[in-house]
Amino acid sequence: MCTIQLSYDTKNAQAREMLATMIASGLFYVHDEPEKQDRVYVEDGEVKWDFVEDATDLESFRQSLHNMVDMEYSLP
Fold it and tell me: Rounded to two decimals, what is the model's pTM?
């Protein structure tokens, strides 16, 4: 099993149509609530992070830190 998180422009008719086609194919299961997990993301032109638990293992923190740096350098 593979989990994919998809975001799209809800105002874009073509994006909505493509998503509907993918879901209708039966190859994908729609899970409305994403699993709670640590994440790094860009919002309002800033790199932000959400850590679900107060403590995380060192490797997960290292990977999140690398993701933050990569995202920071990718910003215009």
Answer: 0.45
